[in-house]
């Protein structure tokens, strides 16, 4: 993956944020997100971390407007998400689902082009003929940055899990969103692509995009500008990585004893393999 070119000048509405206000969201019968208050700004990369079942995906889906809150609300640039038109919203927020399914039989190039549809093209439908040059450029740029151009003409069934993941990412990037919401985007990626992806997301954020990514690898996540640690649907900590990734927080959230080491200004989480005090 190649880093994006820096955007020229500050992007429009760079101060606009995506905000969760006392957000409660149900998943099935359970309350999966419980009173989350958090502000996500453009030009910042936030990683949402936490143990399995902490509510990370549910929070991300609610921030995207896919799951309606049972209480509280999400605002984008000060306006409740529910009051944005579907098209307006889709032009600003782009989402990569966990284990996203790709339309069967589709060619990679056409899947990536779906990202330009602002929510109007359905899976399986190809972009309309004569699409604008800006769309073509954005699609090509997204494919180049995710290194999927070499297999642009192949069908998605012919790709490996990691290659499909990069196609999904290209689809999300092609929208050129204000906020990029990614659920476990490093799934299926080898260490090289995972590191490139993290570097890429940092560059996107530096260029003005608000990046919000659910990540499980805490050492990779520590490369974000900020971490939001969820535990049982609530925010246990939100702030700079060194303030969130502490042994005390890791013990509470993951029920795990771990050391947090610093190496060349980076944080490395080393779990104690016998470090789950409440289980055997
Ligand atoms: N469709 C559903 N029906 C019922 N319960 C659900 C549903 N989806 C999620 N849940 C429950 O809601 C809680 C939060 O789930 P969520 O997927 O948001 O967690 P997560 O932090 O993303 O987990 P993971 O790291 O395992 O992906 C979990 O207890 C889960 O079992």
UniProtKB/TrEMBL annotation:
Residues annotated as domain ABC transporter: 18-257
ATP-binding as UniProt keyword: yes
InterPro entries: AAA+_ATPase, ABC_transporter-like_ATP-bd, ABC_transporter-like_CS, P-loop_NTPase
UniProt-listed PROSITE patterns: ABC_TRANSPORTER_1, ABC_TRANSPORTER_2
Swiss-Prot/TrEMBL keywords: ATP-binding, Nucleotide-binding, Translocase, Transport
GO molecular function, one term: ATP hydrolysis activity
Protein name, UniProt field: Iron ABC transporter ATP-binding protein
């Amino acid at each position: 993956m190649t880093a994006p070119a820096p955007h020229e000048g500050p992007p429009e509405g760079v101060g606009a944020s995506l905000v969760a206000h006392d957000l409660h969201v149900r998943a099935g019968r359970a309350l999966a997100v419980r009173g989350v208050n958090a502000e996500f700004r453009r030009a910042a990369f936030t990683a949402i971390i936490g143990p399995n079942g902490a509510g990370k995906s549910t929070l991300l889906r609610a921030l995207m407007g896919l799951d309606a809150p049972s209480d509280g609300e999400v605002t984008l640039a000060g306006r409740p998400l529910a009051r944005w038109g579907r098209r307006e919203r889709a032009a600003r927020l782009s989402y990569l689902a966990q284990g996203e399914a790709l339309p069967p039989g589709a060619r990679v190039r056409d899947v990536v082009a779906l990202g330009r549809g602002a929510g109007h093209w359905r899976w399986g439908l190809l972009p309309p003929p004569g699409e604008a040059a800006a769309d073509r450029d954005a699609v090509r740029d997204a494919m180049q940055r995710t290194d999927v151009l070499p297999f642009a003409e192949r069908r998605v069934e012919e790709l490996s899990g990691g290659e499909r993941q990069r196609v999904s990412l290209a689809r999300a990037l092609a929208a050129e969103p204000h906020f990029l919401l990614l659920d476990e985007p490093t799934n299926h990626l080898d260490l090289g692509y995972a590191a490139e992806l993290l570097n890429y997301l940092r560059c996107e954020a530096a260029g003005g995009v608000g990046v919000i990514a659910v990540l499980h690898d805490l050492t990779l996540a520590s490369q974000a500008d900020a971490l939001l640690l969820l535990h049982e649907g609530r925010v246990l900590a939100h702030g700079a990585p060194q303030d969130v990734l502490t042994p005390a927080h890791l013990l509470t959230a993951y029920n795990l004893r771990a050391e947090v080491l610093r190496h060349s200004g980076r944080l490395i989480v080393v779990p104690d393999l016998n470090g789950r005090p409440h289980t055997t």
